[in-house]
Amino acid sequence: MRTAVSLPPFTDAGTLVAMAVEAEQAGWDGVFLWDHMVLLPDLRLDVHDPWVLLGAMAARTERVRLGTLVTPLARRRPWVVARHVITLDHLSGGRAVLGVGLGEPGDADFAAFGDPGGHRERAEVLDEALPLLDGLWRGPVEHHGRHFTVETELLPRPVQRPRPPVWVAAVSPHRQPLARAQRWDGVVPLSPELGTITPEQLDTYLAGVERPAGWDVVATWAPGVPVDEYESVGATWVVDGAWPQGDWVDDLRARIRSGP
User: Fold this and answer.
1) Which residues neighbour 128 within 8 Å (Cβ) at sequence distance 6 or greater?
2) What domain range is 33 assigned to?
3) Number of domains in the chain
4) Which parts of the chain have pLDDT scores under 70?
5) DSSP class of residue 75?
6) Can you give the pTM of this predicted structure?
């Protein structure tokens, strides 16, 4: 089982890049970033673009996996995301991962910018965007759908063939996002509160679910729970992170430096 840190990109940009370097030095296997425009307006957070940060992290690291947890495809053009991931994959020498989901909260990150805010419409866009992404990474595309019309070819191809891994967020107990994740390379299971998930919650959520070969289960670690308990219920990754309030930067940085 591999370990990673999830960084809210809501502090000084240089500090975030330094945290990724420290994570690699301390033995973590991945560094992932949240993907928001605003998050919660009342918090008045300084929000940085994850893709720019990931490019800087790729240039400063050699081993860790890099990507987003998670990118809401309903507010991003799939071909732009495809280009971001291709470039990150080349900069990192084939270490890019893309996490996707519906995105939360809908008002601050969607409706405030005129993007679709409802869960159902965002799900429709996500389901159309995912195979379009896959096609853009593999070769020429001719796509005529409800939300997107694309006839093009993106070059270069990603370093990873046929494409970088795609992980899909799923919130317990909902089954539709879990079924969506089974069609791709892994699942990022979340608790109903959109926070950490316990091994017991994870075990219940995945009970009876067919897990394709090589399918990743990316669990957000609940503090105080032994990591091996996640492995015992099928997690392939455990991710440590923080909620961006209080002294979260110093606290998370101390955990990063202490190693997984």
Assistant:
1) 145, 146, 147, 148
2) 2-258
3) 1
4) 105-106, 194
5) G
6) 0.96
